[in-house]
Amino acid sequence: MQNTARSSGPDSRNCSRTISLLKEHYTKTGQVTALGKVAELDDPFRVLIATVLSQRTRDEVTSRAERALFGKFQDAESISQAGIGEIENLIRNVGFYKTKARAIREISREILTRFDGMVPEDLESLLSLPLVGRKTANCVLVFGFGKPAIPVDTHVHRISNRLGWVRTRTPEETETALSKLIPKVRWLDVNELMVRHGKNICKPINPRCDICPIARYCNYELKRR
Ligand code: SF4
Q1: For residue 86, with 0-12 CB atoms within 10 Å meaning exposed, 13-18 middle and 19 or more buried, which class applies?
Q2: CATH number of 35-145
Q3: Which of 58, 105, 204, 214 is most exposed, with the fewest beta carbons within 10 Å of its own?
Q4: pTM, rounded to two decimals
């Protein structure tokens, strides 16, 4: 592959172009993440619970648990009245399922008592819920409400650093740096595309740079040559 990469540091236009290429590639392949699928249901509560389930859990396992839980309980009201053992049984395969079962019931109760049955649409309120950190809250904004935010998980953190867009040590630093670099109109796409890319091509170990559609814009690939 010919080396046509930029010679200077990252800029917004470069990021936009790279995101466009990723979007083009993954639109063709048709792969969607677990949260991407839940987003299609247009139910912020379901997105919130699915995101809690997804913490430290593979996508396939998250999807199965989410479908099992919502096959039995449809909303915050019914989950708030469920027995902990019942919830645990339905989500047993996800990581930390006992902690998550308690948190999911408590979240449901707080949504009913503190937020009038509606998932809040602002970061601060979301962060006040059990087991909801910045990544989860930002996922709810993006996948539940279509509001611009950049949820940074291990895939987004790793790929942004490999591309040379950021040089950061923590997801929080990455979120801050990316929010200055990536045009806001692109924020909605970042998590979905980078998670797909991280699972399929830019894996944690042995990334498949030979088949990567954005290799010519990547610092990691340039250094390998
Ligand atoms: S070129 Fe390699 S390191 Fe860079 S984004 Fe693609 S797979 Fe990841």
Answers
A1: middle
A2: 1.10.340.30
A3: 204
A4: 0.92
